[in-house]
Every structure is written in C-alpha cells, then in structure tokens.
C-alpha cells in the first residue's frame, strides 16, 4: 500500500529490498530520534546506576568515563547509521548481517545477530521497568518517613507486582496507533531534555553545601567495600555506568519502516540520539556532582533511602535547606516519568524487532508474532514481548545475583548484536557494500574497526569480577549469562535452524508488485 501520492525514499528502498509496506509510515525524523533518545534516556541510566559510579571511582570515573564511553559509542552509532541508510528495515541489525555476510554466511549471521538483538532488547525492557519499580518503592519509602523514620519498605513481591503493572501500562500504550506513539515519543524526548536541565540547575542551586570544582573534576574514590584497590580497575568498573546508559539507539533502525524517508532519517535518528545524549548526560553529571559532598553517606544502606544514591542526594538537598525532603521526592518523580517513557519506547523497539524477525520465519510461531491489527500495529509482538520481560524479572524473586546476571545481557547482548554487522561491513563486505544517502565515505572502514574494537573491549570489561574475594554472591555472572546465550543460539542453529532458516525472506512475489 502507498500512503499519499508519492512514494518516499524509504518506502521505495523497502520495495527494492523485497518487502511490502505493512506498517504505517507516519514518523518524522524528530519522532524517529525521539524513540532512540527516550530509550537511551540519560535520566534512566545515570540515576539508577549513580551508586555504581560513586562506589567505583566517584566523580572522576563518571565525569571522564562518560566522555570516553560517549566518544566510542559515537563510532559504533555512526557505523550503524551508515548501514541503516543502505538497509532501512525494521529488522535492522540481523537483516544487515545477512546482507553484509554474503550468501553462504547470511543465514547463520542473521540468526545469531537477531537472537542476540532481541534477547538483549527483552533484557533492556526488563531492566528498565524493574528499575522503575525499585525507584517507585524508594519514592514510597521516603514519602512515608524514610528508612530511619518508620517508612514503608516494600518487599520483593511488591516490587515485582509494581513491575507487572508498569509492563501492563506499557503494553497498553504500545497498542495505540503509531501516530499516538509518535506524539508520546516526542513528549518523552522533551521530558528527558527539560528534566536534565531542570535537575542539573535546581539541585546544586538548592544545596546548602556544594562540592568544589576541584572535587568534581579530580576526586577519585578508592574507598569501596569490594576489595578492589587498583585505580585503573576501579575506573574501568565505574565506566560501566556510562556504557550501560548509552544503549538502545538501535530503536531508530527498528522504526525505519514507519519513518518517512527512512534511508536518511533513520541514520539521523541514531547519530543525533547518541550525540545529544552525550551532551545532555555530561551536563547532568556535572550539575548533580556539585551536590555530592559525602559519598559514604550516600552509599550507606542505612540512610533514609536505603542506599539509593540519587534519591538520597535529592532528599538531603531539600531537607537541609527547607527541613523537609518533599522537594527531593518531587524531583525523583521527574526521573520516574523519564524512566517510564524509556520503558515504553524500549517495548516499542522490542515489538518491531520481533515483528520483523518473525516475518522472516526466525521466531517460534512466527505467524502469531507477525500479525498486525487494523491500526497496522504488531499487537501480538507487543503483548508477548511484555510477558517475556515480566518472566525475566521473576528471577529477582529467587536471587538478585541471578537477575543482575540475566539483565547484563541488556548491555553485552545488544552490543554484540551492534558489532556483528559492522564487523561484516569492514571484512566480508568491505568492497561490495553499497552505501545509502548517509555514508562515511573513505572513513567508513576506520570508523567500523574502531567500533568493533570498542565492543570487544567492553565485552571483556563487563565480564571482570566486581568484588573480592569471589564467592557465589560476588561472582560476576555476566560471562556465564552471555556464554549460555551463545550456547543456546549456536546449538539451536546446529541441531535445528540450519535445516530450515534461510535468512531474511522477501514478501513481494515479483519486482513489479506494489509494496
């Protein structure tokens, strides 16, 4: 079907790639950017992991670590954007791998990239919505008097129930037509930008005691209780806070079949989401760090917030000036809304990836996942992805260690999926790749290799022990979780999928059929 009198460049390119236009192409470049920017959401990652940054290195690790992670993430994003411009489909990464790996490797490359991508996305949705449930629990705790004032501290069962309600709301929102989601996505982007600038100015301004510039730019906290004393090691662990935040920008690629002129606007969405997130995130880090004066107090499990660092910062700032922490609770609510939008956009991206992967027959019961409703929304993919995210969070009832290991796939799994098509681009398709309107020219190969190097490096760094001595409760289970996923994906390929999965398949009978 064709919307309007003219077929835009993204629609025409989708037809050339062999796919009918089944989703409504209604998103502008601003809307496409908004989805990725909302998934990256600096207010989500930086605030939920502020305690990690403070514990491992403090100001130095996240003030400079953010810039380092941001710069290398931009290399990854630019390489992805160049490929996206050539292949603007909702399948994104796994489709790119198939096209770039060549005919003989296409099915396997597509299979492994696709499963790392979709499992990583499910883990992101799980992690974001569970983080929101925990934040809501902290808001309730502080609103009822705090840990030291007899406040209500929710059990893990209440937290998982909150998680379920949040997922339900996100599934309902994602059932709306794309025009509605476009508006909500733009609202989410505006909320993130305004929230960042509001909090980075308000918090240090209200604080009665502020850190010096020397503290903000030079203080390196080595006083952790995890048995780690090497400064480089500490800095590396602190860096992970930044890298966890800078994920999810592949959402722009997964929304390309609903984006006007997607071969131009999809890549712009990816790069602009990363670039603006880097700038907004660094400004936010600096503003909030000027309100940090006592790191051990913020990390103390016996403080009013139960050791939730950013909540304690906000609470203390307002309580010290006004005798009440209510203003801090309101500020936490600003963050909570941003996290809510992040989870919503993450589920949107999930559902589009599941829709495309099932269109090519890679998902169990693919015909079920691939169905779209009268509003051209992949409704089954939305609700099933929400259900899977809920099931993944149930591991938290048994062990938070197991839950954290499982959600670590959110970062490593996604970045492996990001790196695979880039690797194929700079190796197997080095001479055969045909760039789209957005391209890096002669720098494409260099940028691609830098991106692959960075992903390989952070994959190792994320797998390092985070506490000594190493026990079953302190072991970093990330390599176990990621290794388990590798075994499952590869073994399923060897014993089953290689016999029937042929990679992306077109749904146009012949080249003259109207998409």
UniProtKB/TrEMBL annotation:
It is found in: Membrane. Signal peptide: none annotated. GO terms for biological process: amino acid transport. Keywords: Amino-acid transport, Membrane, Transmembrane, Transmembrane helix, Transport. One of its GO terms (cellular component) is membrane. The chain crosses the membrane at residues 29-50, 62-84, 130-150, 157-176, 188-207, 270-292, 322-343, 381-403, 409-428, 440-464, 476-495. This is Amino-acid permease BAT1 homolog. The keyword DNA repair does not apply.
């Amino acid at each position: 079907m064709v919307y309007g009198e003219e077929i835009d460049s993204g629609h025409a390119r989708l037809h050339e790639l062999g796919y009918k236009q089944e989703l409504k192409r209604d998103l502008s470049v601003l809307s496409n950017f908004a989805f990725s920017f909302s998934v990256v959401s600096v207010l989500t990652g930086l605030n939920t992991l502020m305690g990690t940054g403070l514990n491992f290195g403090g100001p130095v690790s996240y003030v400079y670590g953010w810039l380092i992670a941001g710069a290398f993430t931009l290399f990854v994003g630019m390489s992805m954007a160049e490929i996206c411009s050539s292949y603007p489909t909702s399948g994104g990464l796994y489709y790119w791998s198939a096209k770039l790996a060549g005919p003989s490797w296409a099915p396997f490359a597509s299979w492994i990239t696709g499963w790392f991508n979709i499992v990583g996305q499910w883990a992101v949705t799980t992690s974001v919505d569970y983080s929101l449930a925990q934040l809501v629990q902290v808001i309730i705790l502080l609103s009822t008097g705090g840990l030291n004032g007899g406040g209500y501290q929710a059990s893990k069962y209440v937290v998982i129930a909150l998680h379920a309600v949040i997922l339900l709301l996100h599934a309902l929102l994602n059932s709306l037509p794309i025009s509605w989601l476009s508006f909500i996505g733009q609202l989410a982007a505006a909320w993130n930008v305004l929230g960042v600038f509001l909090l980075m100015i308000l918090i240090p301004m209200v604080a009665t005691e502020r850190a010096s510039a020397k503290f903000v730019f030079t203080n390196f906290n080595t006083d952790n209780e995890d048995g780690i004393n090497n400064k480089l090691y500490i800095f590396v662990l602190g860096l992970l806070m930044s890298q966890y935040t800078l994920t999810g920008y592949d959402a722009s690629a997964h929304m390309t079949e609903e984006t006007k002129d997607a071969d131009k606007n999809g890549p712009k969405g990816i790069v602009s989401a990363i670039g603006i997130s880097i700038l907004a995130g660094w400004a936010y880090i600096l503003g909030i760090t000027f309100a940090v004066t006592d790191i051990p107090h913020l990390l103390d499990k016996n403080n009013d917030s139960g050791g939730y660092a950013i909540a304690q910062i906000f609470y203390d700032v307002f309580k010290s000036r006004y005798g009440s922490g209510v203003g801090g609770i309101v500020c936490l609510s600003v963050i909570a809304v941003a996290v809510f939008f992040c989870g919503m956009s993450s589920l949107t991206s999930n559902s589009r990836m599941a829709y495309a992967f099932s269109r090519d027959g890679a998902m169990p019961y693919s015909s079920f996942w691939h169905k779209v409703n009268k509003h051209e929304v992949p409704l089954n993919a939305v609700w099933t992805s929400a259900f899977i995210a809920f099931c993944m969070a149930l591991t938290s009832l048994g062990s938070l260690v197991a839950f954290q290991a499982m959600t670590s796939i959110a970062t490593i799994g996604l970045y492996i999926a990001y790196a695979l098509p880039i690797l194929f681009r700079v190796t197997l398709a080095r001479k055969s790749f045909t760039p789209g309107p957005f391209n890096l020219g002669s720098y494409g190969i260099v940028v691609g290799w830098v991106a692959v190097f960075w992903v390989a490096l952070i994959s190792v760094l994320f797998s390092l022990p985070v506490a000594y001595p190493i026990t079953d409760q302190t072991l970093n289970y990330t390599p176990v979780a990621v290794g388990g996923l590798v075994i499952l994906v590869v073994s399923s390929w060897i014993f089953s999928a290689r016999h029937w999965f042929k990679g992306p398949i077109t749904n146009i009978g012949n080249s003259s059929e109207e998409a």
